[in-house]
């Protein structure tokens, strides 16, 4: 087994015996085999597209399958066996359609057939080894190939969500296949791989834009919203992950059933969408914090729990019976909710479980946080922001965003936010915010000092805020009094980082550790070109940002 796609990779060098995330070597091998089959499908999908053969089903399938291989999404070997069979069937079907139009020769990769009578685990291990031996001679190219692959997984996950909301762009789908197909090419130079990695960032910006359009056109632009953190008496369902469309599907199916719906983790920003909130009054509050605390938090929740996306941890037996997964998420032995004919999950088993469970038996003491400070909300008060900056009331903005995780060195982000001087504003997004999301940082004039922009994909919104402010101040974005202090964990964060580099954002501070898949030379290139640097201590970094 070899996997180093996330921040918690063993000893900061790669998981070899067993994944620190709980992924075993067998699941890792079938994930590798699936990626290999998607790489073989990619040139076929691209040729079909050129010939005008419809590929939408293939495109969406590729996104879902890549999404399933991301950290903390799917641990179910059988699901990967099915994805692999589907990848081959889709590929052969497209090839037949292409053949009917023009005779075509395919590479060995696009003709690869797993032997379904034998262990797919061994076949996955073989192709993974082949990838390492083929690419591993040049450590920097290997590093960039992994950067492209992991970035593309992040793009695929956002693209998958966007298409659920009716937002698609052929350019994104076709680039995903192009990047997958490129992994098989032996003739690309280091410069080519750098360009390709930045292109992943460019395409991810488009994927996040599509998702933003999906959310805002369906649910309205987020508005600053108070979210209760205290439970109220009654039957309850907790929804975790990122998928707002599936949260809405659950809200529809639980309407008038006497069930209160709580968000968990990255679904907190769902409360900021006015049309969702108005339509479903039983979408009440937020329960718990970031993903790595779920084993404690889920055990205590007195209702059913639905996981729509990452980050799922191997569940404890204390709560596995009340846990339900949907979409690309899965874990062996955990309830997987079937889809109805229109592709919506049938939440009936989760609803039945919630009704059978006690729910909350008393109202808790009121506690609350705010969310909904997305691009529209912030830029609508741009004049006040400019006035406050010009009048010396706001000295600096800190974007403290990204993923959370279990490592103690992530306390850096809490300490940094606590130490941010009172004349500075903290914008935040993604699950890393749970380390400080309920801190009372007060206001500067009418502006809260802590503003939650949204989920990790709402990095798009944060980018628009930065670009909007740069325009209003008539400066380059790198000249704004703004520092980006980011935390990463999984492959969506890789895609977002590549987007920021594509936009030429300088001086990003990244932690808690740098990606294991970035070679020393690639890191040197990133630090020389973009002044990307690792976090140090809160005091040192604050002094440098404010200096
Ligand atoms: Fe957090 Fe996990 Fe949002 Fe990441 S809930 S680390 O996958 O996507 O960020
Ligand atoms: Fe290790 Fe992360 Fe890969 Fe899991 S996803 S096996 S923790 S590198």
TrEMBL record:
Hybrid [4Fe-2O-2S] cluster binds at residues 242, 266, 311, 403, 431, 456, 490, 492. [4Fe-4S] cluster binds at residues 3, 6, 15, 21. Pfam families: Prismane. Its EC number is 1.7.99.1. The modification Cysteine persulfide is found at residue 403. GO terms for biological process: response to hydrogen peroxide. It catalyses: A + NH4(+) + H2O = hydroxylamine + AH2 + H(+). It is found in: Cytoplasm. Its cofactor is hybrid [4Fe-2O-2S] cluster; [4Fe-4S] cluster. Binds 1 hybrid [4Fe-2O-2S] cluster. Binds 1 [4Fe-4S] cluster. It comes from the Bacteria. SUPFAM superfamilies: Prismane protein-like. One of its GO terms (cellular component) is cytoplasm. Keywords: 4Fe-4S, Cytoplasm, Iron, Iron-sulfur, Metal-binding, Oxidoreductase. Its main location: cytoplasm. HAMAP family: Hydroxylam_reduct. This is Hydroxylamine reductase.
